Amino acid sequence: MTTAEQSSSRVKGSETPQANHWLAVSAVALGTFLLVSAEQLPIGLLTSVGSALSVSEGTAGLMVTVPSLVAAFAAPLVPMLVRGLDRRILLIGLMALMTVSNVASALAPNFGVLVASRVVVGVAIGGFWAVASGLAVRLVAPESVPKATAIIFGGVGAANVFGVPLGTLVGDFAGWRVAFASVSALALIALVALLVVLPPLVASQPIRPRLLAEQFRNPGVRIGIIATVFIVFGHFSAYTFVSPALQKLSGIDESYVGPLLFGFGLAGMIGNFVAGSALSRRVHRSVLAIALALAVAMPLFALLGRTTITGIILLIVWGLAYGGVSVGLQTWMIKAAPQAVEAASSLWVAVFNLSIGLGALVGGLIVDALSVQGVLWLGGACALVAALAIWSARSNESLR
């Protein structure tokens, strides 16, 4: 999500920094990595948590659904509610919420308490991500904004591909409670880092409902939102249950799921860099290619992933395709709304998280009622709808 146009989106109340605060940029990137990792951590722990707390895998998927839905509403609401609060204080407070909520998750005596702790996680995710999305222009000189933005949102991209496999590996070796406790410990480190290196950040002009509503008048933004809804909803309806899919469909032992998801993450990072390079030349074609690749990868997993070898190969293909989603959709939104990046980004964060939550929720219902193959077919169908929407914007000059 990098572009020199970010520098034109400074809002009233921001001052050009006298020096580049690269340590602060890195601390914010660490924060975004931990928050998004915490959101998706339960994906690799569904089987173990469900077994320990006596709930089905579909019900356990609420651990992903709840914080994502809460984050979707928190993304625009937190900046509006805090209004003039120093953004430094806000970010530190949200990271403190993340630290405490994951301690509660690790100690939860039953599933109800665990889900309640995930509500707090959602507030922290939505608020932090929304504020961080426009923070680069507050921390570095204009000419360094693209690089700083890449670092901050690199935390989001890394979490999307590494958060789940790393959490799964910890859960496999030490138990799911230790996985949640580990996130809490890392969040505490991030909190201290923000406290030490983040400079005072006088509040910018707050995001207002009218400004968000105005974004829907922009055709490029509308299509970007539609594409985000279908791609993210479809992906997470299937990926939330990738652990049981690997075990039941491909016959892979549970002990190998963590390492395989790490391989998914590595493939995703490669996909991220490939997509980033392609996006610098052709935004529309690159995002269309990502959507089409997902539309093929998930159904193929349902059809052909019935052996260990084919299951692993198709998982890697899926990871390569999904790795370009975050950078692709973020770049699309910035290109579509160069004069309203903060508002468009806040809206995009809300829709992205809402789609994660709804995808996990619907996926859980399908897994409990039908099978894991059903969510793979749903994911492919949603990606195909997104591809059709993206294709319809082929004449939009700003997205070429």
UniProtKB/TrEMBL annotation:
GO terms for cellular component: plasma membrane. InterPro entries: MFS, MFS_dom, MFS_Efflux_Transporters, MFS_trans_sf. It is found in: Cell membrane. Pfam families: MFS_1 (PF07690). GO terms for molecular function: transmembrane transporter activity. The chain crosses the membrane at residues 21-38, 58-82, 89-108, 120-141, 148-166, 178-202, 223-244, 256-275, 287-305, 311-334, 346-366, 372-391. Coiled coil: none annotated. The keyword Transmembrane helix applies. Residues 24-398 form the Major facilitator superfamily (MFS) profile domain. The keyword Transmembrane helix applies. It is a multi-pass membrane protein. Keywords: Cell membrane, Membrane, Transmembrane, Transmembrane helix. This is Putative major facilitator superfamily transporter.
